[in-house]
Structures are given as structure tokens and as C-alpha cells.
């Protein structure tokens, strides 16, 4: 795996032509596997003999993983993404109320208001920049970051710092010292947030989690509280940021598909679902570990191996989607794994879908002539092989 990342689709196609499961070498010469095929990934994500807990990671348990390994946080953070069984159900139940259909729908007016404000900001940035503005930094980022921070009760003063630290924490190309520093700084910020909410509780998820811990100290430990907030911050904005960015890129490159939406032959939710499939916001997500030696699609995966979930590959698997799997088609029936499968299915999926649908509809209604300001080939890629998008998206927001 190239720590610097890059567009994954050409390599994914080459590997898928060989097998649905591939051996990979992770940063630091750590041996692992990646599940690439749609059906193989679906089976793996819900397999009863596959776990998320780091105690099943053989190399980590045997002391072979350095403290500054860039992927270490994915394995060791305390929270839902590294919990199994009863622990996972306990942690998920504490957070799930914030993402109930009623609570998510109640966020709609705020999302619509924030979207309108950010579209004004995008227009102002373009006016000050010879008609060009970075859609990622002026629109696609502050929308989900603002929403998740309001949901968690995180003061706006922390938002820029949390995004920068999130980028460093999930990057696979971070050096050991930088990785350790980023994780330390992230924990310091989140500790400050929990201290503030402890002193001044509000109607937010962080206050609710603290209250649950106070009522029953065994329900949520201090490291689990920080780990849960870390997960919510990173997953709550990075993936939706990439989803919106990738959808805009796709529509600008496929004006015929945009026209289908404008004529009512497809809807904005269809754009969201096809983007999730065609250009998944997450390329390879770490980690799951077989709790016994497994054979998946004819490929042996030894017990304790760190395995990546290859969402970007599975989304374009010809075995699942046919010979036109690499084509962006908003009329395609929605069927993908980009939000997960099984017990760890993305808890924030309804919120992400709502945010992206509102953002895209309002963006292209306000700026029907919006287009990229540079060719797709010149867009700088996001660092690392976990997230899948570009680092900047210069656009011309025209009416």
C-alpha cells in the first residue's frame, strides 16, 4: 500500500482482475490483507469469526508495532470501531439515540440554514478570487464539521484545529513523531471539550455521554468517552466532506448525469448513492482480524492478520455491477457497501445522506453553471489510502 495514497481505481481494477482478496504490505513493512470484491467484502464484514478488537491483532499483541506507526490509532482507539460483542452494543446504544430518525430529521432546518450561509461564503470567495474558489474548504468541509460539532457540543473555536488533527490522525503517510504528536494533541482538545461540557452541560451528545457515565461509571470509561468523540469527529465530517467533494467532481465530469437530475429522471438521493458506490469516500478502512484461520473467496487469511476493507474496490467490482461498473450512472439501482455492513454499519449514515443531498441540491440550484476550474487530472489527491478524495477542489460557481 502506497502510504501517500493517490487515486485507487486503476490499482483496484488490476487487483480485482486477479482475485477478490489480496495480500498487502502496510507502512512499516507490516503484512496484511485487503478484501476487494463486493461479495467477499460483504461476507467478511459480517463473518462471525472476524473481530475488531486490537487484542486479536497478532503483530500488535507481540510488540511488533511501533508506538508511532501511522495506523496504530485505528487499532487501539477505545470506541465502537474497536469493540466487539456486548462492548460494541453497549457503546453503540449510548450514541444511537443522537442518530435516531427523529433526531436526524430535526437537524434538517439547521443543515439548510448552514448550507445557505456557506453558499454565500462560496460566492464571496469566488468574487475575491477572480471567479474561482475552493469548494472543499468553503463548502464541503464546514457543512459536516459544523453539524457534527453542534451535535457534540464542540465550540466553534476548536473546529479548524480538529479538522487539521483529524487529517493527521487518519493519514497513512505520517511520520512516527508527527503521528504521536497529532494523537496527543487530539486527545488534549477532546479532553478540553469534555471538561467544558462537564462544567456546563447542554443538549448535546457529549453532555449525554458524560451523564451516562456519571449515572453508572461502568457504562462508559474515560478512554471510551474520548475515543467515542474522536470517532464521531473524524467519521462525522471526513467521510461526508469526501462524499460531497466526490459527487461534485462526478457531476462536473458527467454533465449528462446532472441533466438527468435536472429533468427529474433521477433524484439527488440517487446522486448520493451512486457517488458512494462509484467513488467511495473511504478507500481502505483498517482493521478487522480473523479470530481463526479463514479462507475467503479461495484465499487463506491467517488468524490475527490486519485486514483492510476495500470499499473503493468493491464499489466498482464488475462481478457485482457488471461490465459497466466503472461508469457513473445515477439511474443505477442503489446497492453498495460504502457505509459498511453488519453490526458495524455506519451509525451516521442517515445524517450523511441528508447533508449530502441538501448540499448538492442547493449548490447546483444556486450555481447551475458550476464547473471545475482545473482539469480533473490536476487536482491534488488527499494524502493516504484511507480517505478517497482530492485535497482541494477549485471551482467556478456560476449561475
TrEMBL record:
CDD domains: CYP107-like. The keyword Iron applies. The keyword Ribosomal protein does not apply. Keywords: Heme, Iron, Metal-binding, Monooxygenase, Oxidoreductase. One of its GO terms (molecular function) is heme binding. It comes from the Bacteria. InterPro entries: Cyt_P450 (IPR001128), Cyt_P450_B (IPR002397), Cyt_P450_sf (IPR036396). Belongs to the cytochrome P450 family. This is Putative Cytochrome.
Amino acid at each position: 500500500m502506497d502510504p501517500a495514497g493517490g487515486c485507487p481505481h486503476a490499482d483496484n481494477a488490476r487487483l480485482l482482475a486477479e482475485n477478490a482478496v489480496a495480500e498487502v504490505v502496510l507502512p512499516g513493512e507490516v503484512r496484511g490483507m485487503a478484501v476487494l470484491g463486493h461479495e467477499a467484502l460483504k461476507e467478511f464484514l459480517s463473518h462471525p469469526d472476524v473481530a475488531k478488537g486490537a487484542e486479536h491483532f497478532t503483530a500488535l499483541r507481540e510488540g511488533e508495532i511501533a508506538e508511532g506507526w501511522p495506523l496504530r490509532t485505528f487499532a487501539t482507539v477505545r470506541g465502537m470501531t474497536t469493540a466487539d460483542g456486548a462492548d460494541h452494543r453497549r457503546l453503540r446504544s449510548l450514541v444511537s439515540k443522537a442518530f435516531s430518525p427523529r433526531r436526524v430529521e430535526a437537524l434538517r432546518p439547521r443543515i439548510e440554514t448552514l448550507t445557505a450561509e456557506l453558499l454565500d461564503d462560496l460566492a464571496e470567495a469566488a468574487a475575491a478570487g477572480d471567479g474561482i474558489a475552493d469548494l472543499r474548504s468553503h463548502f464541503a468541509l464546514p457543512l459536516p464539521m459544523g453539524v457534527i460539532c453542534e451535535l457534540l457540543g464542540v465550540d466553534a473555536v476548536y473546529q479548524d484545529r480538529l479538522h487539521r488533527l483529524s487529517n493527521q490522525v487518519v493519514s497513512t503517510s505520517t511520520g512516527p513523531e508527527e503521528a504521536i504528536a497529532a494523537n496527543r494533541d487530539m486527545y488534549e482538545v477532546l479532553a478540553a471539550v469534555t471538561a467544558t461540557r462537564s462544567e456546563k452541560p447542554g443538549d448535546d451528545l457529549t453532555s449525554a455521554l458524560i451523564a451516562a457515565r456519571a449515572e453508572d461509571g461502568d457504562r462508559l470509561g474515560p478512554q471510551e468517552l474520548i475515543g467515542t468523540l474522536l470517532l464521531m469527529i473524524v467519521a462525522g465530517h471526513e467521510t461526508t466532506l469526501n462524499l460531497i467533494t466526490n459527487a461534485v467532481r462526478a457531476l462536473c465530469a458527467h454533465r449528462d448525469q446532472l441533466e438527468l437530475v435536472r429533468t427529474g429522471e433521477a433524484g439527488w438521493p440517487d446522486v448520493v448513492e451512486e457517488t458512494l458506490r462509484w467513488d467511495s469516500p473511504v478507500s481502505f478502512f483498517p482493521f478487522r482480524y480473523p479470530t481463526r484461520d479463514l479462507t475467503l473467496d479461495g484465499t487463506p487469511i491467517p488468524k490475527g492478520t490486519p485486514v483492510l476493507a476495500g470499499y473503493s474496490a468493491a464499489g466498482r467490482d464488475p462481478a457485482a455491477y457488471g461490465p459497466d461498473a466503472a461508469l457513473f450512472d445515477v439511474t443505477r439501482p442503489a446497492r453498495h457497501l460504502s457505509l459498511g455492513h453488519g453490526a458495524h454499519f455506519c451509525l451516521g449514515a442517515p445524517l450523511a445522506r441528508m447533508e449530502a443531498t441538501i448540499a448538492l441540491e442547493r449548490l447546483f440550484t444556486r450555481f447551475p453553471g458550476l464547473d471545475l476550474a482545473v482539469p480533473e487530472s490536476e487536482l491534488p489527491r488527499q494524502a493516504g489510502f484511507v480517505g478517497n478524495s482530492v485535497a482541494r477542489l477549485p471551482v467556478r460557481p456560476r449561475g
